[in-house]
User: Which sequence fits this backbone?
């Protein structure tokens, strides 16, 4: 069983990487975002990035910085399928997955901020209906933190085993993923 984590900036193409790995390599997909949205719906909170950040930080503070991904990893281990865990956002999550799965690989993905903003407005997700200024503000909040329970995307990206750039066409990203998998 292989476990691949995916981290990256907002709208960079994490979901596209997931789709490629599912379609071409048969991976199952488990998402931190989906896990958080389930909790948000149970609590009847607004479905937006602020709620996701607040709930994620609260869960991590009440348990451990890696609690959410450990829950997803347990599901993966039950299924014994190759699995992608999407939206790795804390150092603790990366460290726990490396400790619990020696063959764990972390992919990061990034793209120019204007391109990423265009992508999120096109996908029309409930959590992506924001101005460019709010988009930049949200990303800045998630990029660094000294609190192990909070998002630290820049540290996660720097810890990645595979770094993908998504400023071009889908085929270019697909080629990078295939190269990483070979």
Assistant:
């Amino acid at each position: 069983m292989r476990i691949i984590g995916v981290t990256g900036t907002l709208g960079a193409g994490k979901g596209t990487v997931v789709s490629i790995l599912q379609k071409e390599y048969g991976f199952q997909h488990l998402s931190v975002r989906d896990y958080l949205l389930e909790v948000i719906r149970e609590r009847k909170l607004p479905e937006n990035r602020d709620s996701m950040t607040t709930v994620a930080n609260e869960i991590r503070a009440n348990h451990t910085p890696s609690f959410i991904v450990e829950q997803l990893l347990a599901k993966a281990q039950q299924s014994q399928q190759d699995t992608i865990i999407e939206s790795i956002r804390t150092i603790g999550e990366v460290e726990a997955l490396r400790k619990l799965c020696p063959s764990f690989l972390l992919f990061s993905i990034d793209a120019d901020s204007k391109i990423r903003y265009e992508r999120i407005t096109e996908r029309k997700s409930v959590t992506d209906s924001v101005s460019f200024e709010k988009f930049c503000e949200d990303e800045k909040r998630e990029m660094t933190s000294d609190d192990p329970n909070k998002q630290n995307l820049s540290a996660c990206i720097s810890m990645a085993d595979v770094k993908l750039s998504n400023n071009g066409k889908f085929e270019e990203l697909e080629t990078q993923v295939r190269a990483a998998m070979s």
